[in-house]
Amino acid sequence: MRLDKFLMNSKIVKRRVLAHDLCEGGKVKKNEKILKPSYKLKENDLITIELANRVITIKIKENTSFEILKEHRK
């Protein structure tokens, strides 16, 4: 599944446009590498997402499920 679709479907962000903007703005990373909105997620990917007031690290389990590994305020 595409990264921007995953962020929307998993309710991390409310709209796909916001997910797309996060990716384009360099706020979504995997191993310190900025991901594009079209990145195809794989099981066991570790993704770091910088939101307005917090940073979360998630582990992808399946297509639309994930586990929050770490969350902290900016």
From TrEMBL:
Keywords in UniProt for this one? Protein biosynthesis, RNA-binding, rRNA-binding, tRNA-binding
Give the highest taxon in the source lineage: Bacteria
* Record flagged with keyword rRNA-binding: yes
BP terms from Gene Ontology: translation
Residue ranges of every copy of the RNA-binding S4 domain listed in the record: 1-64
For molecular function, the Gene Ontology terms on record are: rRNA binding; tRNA binding
* Designated name of the protein: RNA-binding S4 domain-containing protein
| Membrane-spanning residues | none
One Pfam match: S4
